[in-house]
Amino acid sequence: MRNSMGSSTGQRLVSALVGLCWWAGCAVGPDYTPPVLEAPDLWKLELTEGLATGQADLQTWWQVFDDPVLEDLVERAQDGNLDLAQAFFRIDEARARRGIARGDFFPDADGVGGYNRNRISRDFSSPTTDQSNTFDFFSTGLDVSWEIDFFGRIRRSVESANAGLEGSVEDYRDILVSLLADVARTYVDVRTFQTRVFLAERNVELQRGTLELTRDRNRAGLVGDLDVAQAERNLATTEAFVPVLRAALVRSINRLGVLLGEAPDALHGQFQEVGTIPEVPEQVTVGLPLDLLRQRPDLRGAERALAAQTARIGVATADLYPRFAILGTFAFDAIDAADLFTGDTGAFSVGPAVRWNLFDGGRVRSQIQVEDARAEQAMVAYEQTLLLALQETEDAMVTYREERRRRDALARSVIAAQEATELVNTLYRAGLTNFQNVLDTERALFTQEDALAESEGFVANGLVRVYESLGGGWAP
After folding, report:
1. Which residues make beta-bridge pairs with 52?
2. How do beta strands 284-286 and 323-334 pair?
3. pTM for the full model?
4. N or C: which end of the chain has fewer CB within 10 A?
């Protein structure tokens, strides 16, 4: 009868405490509300020359270049880049950490067991019996503990872990945005260096022809040795520039290979043939400043970091209050292993427990202040991230606009240099101008053609930077 009543009382107690666990809906600490940050409604008109504001397709922005090689490289980078792979596994880590936090909602049950060989003093043994003073003791069972999350410590921990998981996803997206931009920029660099090498070698051939002409005229007594020496110097100067460009080309191809998660020399065969620098369209569509809050992963990640830190304030605050738990032990004890699970060897104890730190020298309140200060830092970091995002985007837009203007001016300059070179060579052959004019026009032609090719690469990379600053490369 006693055992039955004890069992019934224990069951009612457990039921009451479980009900209390479900009923307890409060959680100490501040409830997180996403902050509202202000951003301009529109970009400044002068920034958007060559850019149109509207609904922009940022997910596959590289397709505006209409370059199949670039599209293939982007796809391969998404599959093979090792930085991206690390970020992916960091998401797995954050997901596992959330599982650890969620695990505190459930009881802990530890299987226990033991065996002891015991011998008691003969002075404590009965002198009137033959009972041995040596015996065995066998024990096995479960130790169970279950914390009731009355003040929300566990819920706040899970809330923080959830925000941390979401933040790791944003970190992955941020790396993806940077990766796709790096692939596109490096590819543009490869094509730009190829073009510059081609132009330099073409100018070498032009200047080599001029040197042969000067030598012929020198042998005929029409010009002096000075013209020959100047022609040789001009040719050697241009030839010396070619190895610099070739080295830069090799470095760019090597970097592109690593971005794809491949060996540095893996792509050299693919770029044996000279390709053209990707052309930008006359006008591309970009979003509005407010779209940055929705699109840029670093901003979204900063907001999630703020949410996670806000939840940690609640975790720290919960330490001001008592912790309630249900503790239980269920065991079988016997002095004979054969009797361990028979008869009356079963035993249990179950009941509530409370633990309340009444004095800690101000440690808990100081920890709350620490978490509060960290939340303020996270809020400031979020605001700073928005300002930097606006700055990066505006800088990218103005750089793109001004480089387009520079490219157009250089294009006109190259046309004029080509015409001047043809004219001065004709006049020189006819003996109507001196050789210094030939040297000047040939040097100017090489300089302007190289500058134009470089600027065309800058324009393409400028557009890439615009898309990167807008957070392009993934879909919200």
Report:
1. 285
2. unpaired
3. 0.86
4. N
